[in-house]
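Sequence dictates fold. Below is an illustrative record:

_____
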Amino acid sequence: MSSSDNDISMDEVGPHDQGQSDFKPFTVQENIQQLNAIDASIVKLMEHTSTSLNALTTSLDNASIGSPKPSVDPAAQKEAYRAATDSFLTTLHSIDVRMKRHILALEEAGVVDLAPKKKTDINEKPPPTLKPDGVGSVGGMDVGWLNSRSSKVERDMERELWDKTRNFLERDGDKLRHE
C-alpha cells in the first residue's frame, strides 16, 4: 500500500500525540468546507467512471463510413482503465472515510443516535408509541394491515353507488323505458 504526503509515520508520533491532545471541534465553516470537498470528490467519481468506460470503448467520432477502423492499442486501453479504476477506488475510499467521520461527529454531538435499541428480554416488545416508525406502523399496529382487513370502506362505497343508481332510475327511469 502506498503512502501519501499527508501520512504520519508511527516513529514521528511523540508521547504528547498519543494520549490526550487539545481537542478542538471543527467550526461550522470548516464542516461546510469539508462537505463541499466531499461533494467535489463525488463529482470526481463520475469523472473516473467516465474515463474508465471511455478506455474500454472505441471512439465513433474518428471512425467514418469510408475510413478503416481506428487503431486501438489494447495495452494502452488496459492501462488507462486500470489507472481510472484505481483513482475511482481511492476516491471512493476517501469519501467513505470522510462521511463516516461526519456521521460519527453528528452522533457525538447528539444530532443522530446510531446505537442499536437495547432490549432487556428477547420476548419483550417495546412500549407502543404514537409516532410512526416509517414502515407503516403506529403504536405497534400496522395501519396498512388493518385497512386491508376492513370492509367498511368497501361497503360504504357500494351503498353510495346503489343510492346513486336508485336516484337515477327514479328520476330518469321513465325516459329510459320510452326510448
Notes: Strands lie at 137-138, 141-142. The longest helix spans residues 74-108. The chain has five helices and two strands.
